[in-house]
């Protein structure tokens, strides 16, 4: 009888521990998934800012995958990670392109308040997926 | 907020502008007489303002002929269709039965209606207002300012006791279209007769090369530097030939508009505050732009996509 109880307790403990760890794992998964959706939503925001005619309107001048009616006065925006390993440089290009090329005609999005600092950051996050 | 940042970069002129300050001695007879006593031997050499401007015109043209080597200089009168083979044929077809035809007829009617005092527009203009578009805008020595054709139309009304018409679109533009139509194939022949005229010219030139608006563009960025390229779906016309086809019928407008109407639109597109129709700055800009098109023929009114 005593032995039976001990076994039962052991089993219960085991089951409890197991389910707890499964639960924990599940929770972790969910967290990761949530994080991913949040990240995707942020990236989507960056893309929308870039594509919106009243905001970045980057398509006026740049080829960007997924865009339509694209202009051709600026370079195509591809392989951004490889070409802009330093985030700062990319942020500067969008905040005020004149810091990289004084004769540019790319609008100074940050310096002229066309985009907020936060919007520039969102655009840069998204650019790094290209 | 900081919607309009107009003047920040005005100072960042274009290289051409470095040559714009003019320290030449005064040339009026009075000044010469005053200085005669002190320095009798030094006669002030008259400055050839037209010659200076002609130099500018030459440089301006060679820029475009280098950029678009296949395009005959005379064809720049056709705006974007001078360089856009893809749409040129279609445009030529539209010009056979143009959407502005009715406006020319209306313009003629307006032009011929007598004012209350019995006079009419024909009394205000050389050659009764026929075939004179190519002489506008001109620099008027009496009032010391640039007179555009559209300003002259309203001045004519004022002198004859009529209320002025609104600029941009409508009756006045129809009259201007009729007058342009009667001047087709006449060569633009704008003059810079003196120092004051040269100043107005330089003022227009400075406007053309100055950055403005929140988006920080100059006219020259779009219509010189990247002319022929696409901004989004719009192909940018060369600035040479900008005034020749005016006024233009644009599908987007659904009616004729003056060059001033276009200036305002281009200003708004870069989020700059558009100036008033016929403001001094716009008149000087039109003076500058038309000088750059000297020698091309009048082919207004015309149609644009």
What is the strand and helix layout of this fold?
The complex is a heterodimer of chains A (130) and B (305).
Chain A: H1 2-51, H2 80-83, H3 87-95, H4 117-127
Helix pairs in contact in A: 1-4, 3-4
Chain B: H1 29-36, H2 49-67, H3 85-96, H4 101-112, E1 138-140, E2 145-147, H5 149-159, H6 171-181, H7 195-209, H8 219-225, E3 230-231, E4 234-235, E5 248-250, E6 255-257, H9 259-269, H10 280-292, E7 302-304
Parallel strand pairs in B: 5-7
Antiparallel strand pairs in B: 1-2, 3-4, 5-6
Explain briefly what this protein structure is.
The complex is a heterodimer of chains A (130) and B (305). With 130 residues, chain A is mainly α. Chain A is 57% helix and 0% strand.
Tally the structural domains of chain A.
1
Bin the strand percentage of chain A. Answer: under 5%
Oligomerization category of the chains in this entry: heterodimer
pLDDT averaged residue by residue of chain B: 89
Backbone CA Rg of chain B? 20 Å
Q: Report low-confidence residues of chain B grouped into runs of 5 or more.
A: 1-36
Helix content of chain B: 25-40%
Task: State the order of secondary-structure elements of chain A, H for helix, E for strand.
Answer: HHHH
CATH class of chain A: Mainly Alpha
Number of continuous helical runs of chain A: 4
- Give the termini separation of chain A: 68 Å
CA-atom Rg of chain A in angstroms: 25 Å
Q: What kind of sheet is the major sheet of chain A?
A: none
Number of domains of chain B: 1
| Beta strands of chain B, count | 7
Mean pLDDT of chain A: 86
SS-derived structural category of chain B: mainly alpha
In CATH, the topology of chain A is named Cytochrome Bc1 Complex, Chain D, domain 2
Full CATH superfamily name of chain B:
Cytochrome c-like domain
